[in-house]
Amino acid sequence: MTTTIHPAASIHTFDPSRPTADAVAVRNGRFLAVGSVDELLRIDGATIDGSLERFTLIPGLVEAHCHAMAGGMWHHTYCGYYDRRGPDGTMWPGCTTIAEVIDRLRDAEADLPTPADPDDPLLAWGLDPIYFTGERLVAEHLDRVSTTRPIFVFHASGHLATVNTALMATEGINADTDVDGVPKDGHGDPIGELQEPVAMALAGRAFRKIFADIKTDESLWNFGNEARNTGTTTLTDLGNQQSTDVAEVARYQQVFDHDDFPARVSVFHMPAPGTPDTLAETAAAVTANRDNSSDKLRFGHVKLIIDGSIQGYTARLRWPGYVNGAPNGLWLLPPEQVIDVLRPYHRAGLLIHAHCNGDEAVDVFLDAVEGLLGETPRVDHRHTVQHCQLTTPDQYRRIAALGMCANVFSNHTWYWGDQHAASTVGPDRAGRMNSARTALDLGVPLSMHSDAPITPLGGLHVAWAAVNRLTATGNVLGPNERISVDEALRAITVGAAHQLKMDDEVGSISPHKFADLAILEADPFAVDPMELRDVPVWGTMLGGRTFQAG
Fold first, then answer.
1. Residue closest to 388 by CA, chosen among 341, 337, 445
2. Which residues are bridge partners to 31 per DSSP?
3. Cβ atoms within 10 A of the Cβ of 409, count?
4. 488's torsion region: left (phi>0), alpha (psi -120 to 50) or beta?
5. The pLDDT of residue 116
6. Among 68, 62, 8, which residue's Cα sits nearest to residue 35?
7. What does the pLDDT average to over 351-370?
8. Beta carbons of 330 and 180 less than 8 angstroms apart
């Protein structure tokens, strides 16, 4: 048996039995022991590998809410507001005005074949009109790019898209289109914005193409490269409607189980409404799919989407709703159906996570879980409220009482905090968004996430946002909700592992667990908390094998 000792400049284990150490011993891809070098050299046959001795080692970061599509979006043109680095290391400058968005799209359109073909639309992503005060990007703007080629621009939230007139004409989106999520102007004509999946699906070929293009092996490898570059060793694909399909399982196995793929991936099935019989059949299929799991690939969980996006005005909020008077958002699943959709999955013993941005959506999910537990009591179910943007103290108390968990979207404070304070919910509610301090104080098991590709994958930025609660303009939003560096790093390691029911395998540097590490070039506990997101990542270790960042 080969035992390798890795000395390091510092090691933070997040294991209370030995919080810090000088070295870690690895055998057969798992942690064998931690301690001093002298202590570990007493192990028969142990040898020293000094390649990590200048680095700080912490458990591999666990991203409990992201999407495999994060690797595939880079097939298309990025036109988001902030600078963003792709998985190949290319830095894309942000588009900070509508004019810059149009210029970026014109450059992309010039690279496409001519004449324009409806089967070759211009696809882009990352747009967020909330940053462009006083003007909302609509079809009229995209028509300046092309009046003949269909254009589909996915918003940063993933809940909306903007299309041009050519696309609407091709797909028959017009004044007679009677679908929630298709806003119209004063003359009754669609403005080119499509809100939520039912409306976005009206974009037809362009909508199908953007999702087909992200389902490639290259996209999945990009996903792994982004993980390696950010110190992340466990990822999620949180919501895949095809996760039980034989072809989809085989595709994931081919890439994620490959020895060179640098992360573990937990896949959550996205159920659709149906009859009791069809829902029971799907629950059985999700349960059976567990047999396709491996050390690097996990199946057998469920994720539901209840409402939309706050910055897209499609999330469901308790009164007083949106401060600018916008109508309350859209239910992606009628509230009265939530308990019926979830019942077979709960009864099958499956883990359930639910997307709830607005506090009204949180109420619906908590009511459903309380009803299900009354029907079918379960110990240690760990059903999780995802995003928790506006979750209130009374709701956190219910979450704790019901044995649930919370996964807060802390990055929102940086990316949209100013807009939330000014436009969506006002300064007081914006100050308590993503309230990690309240959750911890009320005993709620906590993790935090990036929701990549909505914001860039990277746990250190997620932790930084919760520690500092700084907005992009330098305001501290909700200082009473700040948490410590230690609490934040635990949330993105052991806390996230707990929510994925993988805390016996990952999340801390502990004997028996997989030898997964984030390898850092500075100690996150030694830097100024304002510099936490800037700690350089050398790479990762997965199962004892190192992967250097690209």
1. 445
2. 26
3. 25
4. alpha
5. 67
6. 8
7. 98
8. yes
SS3 state at 520: strand
Asked if 168 and 150 count as a contact pair (C-beta separation under 8 A), the reply is no
pLDDT in tens, 1-11: 799 999 999 99
Q: What is the value of pTM for the model shown? A: 0.94
3-state secondary structure of 231: coil
**Amino acid letter, 385:** V
Tokens 């918003």 sit on residue: 155
510 neighbors 35 (Cβ within 8 angstroms): no
**Cα 262 from Cα 271, distance rounded (Å):** 28
Q: Measured between alpha carbons, how far is 314 from 327 in angstroms, rounded to an integer?
A: 9
Cα gap 12→26, rounded to integer Å? 16
Cβ-contact 195, 202 below 8 angstroms: no
- Confidence label for 118 from pLDDT (cuts 50, 70 and 90): low
Let me know: does 151 contact 105? Beta carbons within 8 Å.
Answer: yes
Nearest CA to 404 among 459, 435, 446? 446
Whether the CB-CB separation of 520 and 233 falls below 8 Å is answered with no
* 384 touches 499 (CB < 8 A): yes
Element (H, E) at 407: strand 405-408
Is a pLDDT exceeding 80 seen at residue 97?
A: yes
Instruction: Show contacts of 129-134: CB within 8 Å, 24+ apart.
Output: 129/155, 129/162, 130/311, 130/312, 130/416, 130/419, 130/423, 130/424, 131/81, 131/96, 131/419, 132/97, 132/98
d(CA 351, CA 287): 10
Name the band, by pLDDT with cuts 50, 70 and 90, for residue 468.
very high
Can you list the domains of the chain with their CATH numbers?
3-54 (2.30.40.10), 95-212 (3.10.310.70), 216-542 (3.20.20.140)
The DSSP letter of residue 423 is I
Angle between helix 246-256 and 217-230 (nearest 10): 40
Angle at 415 between CA 314 and CA 315, to 5 degrees: 10
- Count CB neighbours of 528 within 10 A: 8
